[in-house]
UniProtKB/TrEMBL annotation:
Coiled coil: none
An annotated Gene Ontology molecular function: oxidoreductase activity
PANTHER family cross-referenced by the UniProt entry: IRON-SULFUR FLAVOPROTEIN MJ1083, NAD(P)H-DEPENDENT FMN-CONTAINING OXIDOREDUCTASE YWQN-RELATED
UniProt source species: Thermanaeromonas toyohensis ToBE
Keywords assigned by UniProt, alphabetized: Flavoprotein, FMN
The protein, known as: Multimeric flavodoxin WrbA
Keyword Disulfide bond assigned: no
The NADPH-dependent FMN reductase-like domain, residue ranges: 1-150
SUPFAM superfamilies recorded: Flavoproteins (SSF52218)
Claim: Kinase is one of the keywords in the record: no
Amino acid sequence: MKILAINGSHRRGRNTAKMLETVLEEARSLGAETELLELSDYNIKPCRACNHCLRVIECSIQDDDIKLITDKMLAADAIVLGSPVYISNVTGLMKNFMDRTRWLHMCRNTLHGKVGAAVTHAGLRNGGQELTQIIMERYLASHGMIVVDSRDQEGRIYNHGPMGTLFERLEDGRVIWKKDVEEDSLALHECRTLGRNIVRQLQLLKAARQEV
Ligand SMILES: Cc1cc2nc3c(=O)[nH]c(=O)nc-3n(C[C@H](O)[C@H](O)[C@H](O)COP(=O)(O)O)c2cc1C
């Protein structure tokens, strides 16, 4: 049971990375093998829209690091994407990565049947987390992945997925900010639930495949 987390933040190890690490930590405690990949560590050139991937299961750009990442995606059972909100959207790094993985689902849906999930972090309380979350979940679904969210097994729902904010409260008209996501108990709770849900979904899929 391999779970790969991909962080689209331009800052490694910060809020989004901490959220992804919380998802992975929970999954590890249930027996999963995990890896956190920081897109900022990799050289990924922009898609040049040559449409090579409409004919062949590969990308025409071979002189960068995208293959290192897609090999890990193909080997994983589940993929968790994380992005901070940049102007109500995913980051440029995350979008560039998404474009360059088009070849994974054009001629053949190579990620079909894997489990997918997403987490977001933003400064403002409602700074575009929901839209950013939907963009990543839409990407995962477009690759034929089974998208899971952070609703718990008791059916409680607090949020539409793990979405962090630095906003703490208003005090005399002044915003009090959280230091970082470690102070966002709801976001971290949702990340832990998401980690459990991913493992549960993988176990259900494994059992179903053994029955067939
Ligand atoms: C270019 C840029 C655009 C941003 N746009 C938004 C935004 O639209 N809404 C928001 O709430 N925060 C926005 N932020 C703040 C980040 O989402 C926030 O700092 C987040 O915690 C960064 O995640 P990280 O710690 O994983 O890098 C923006 C930050 C940058 C650098």
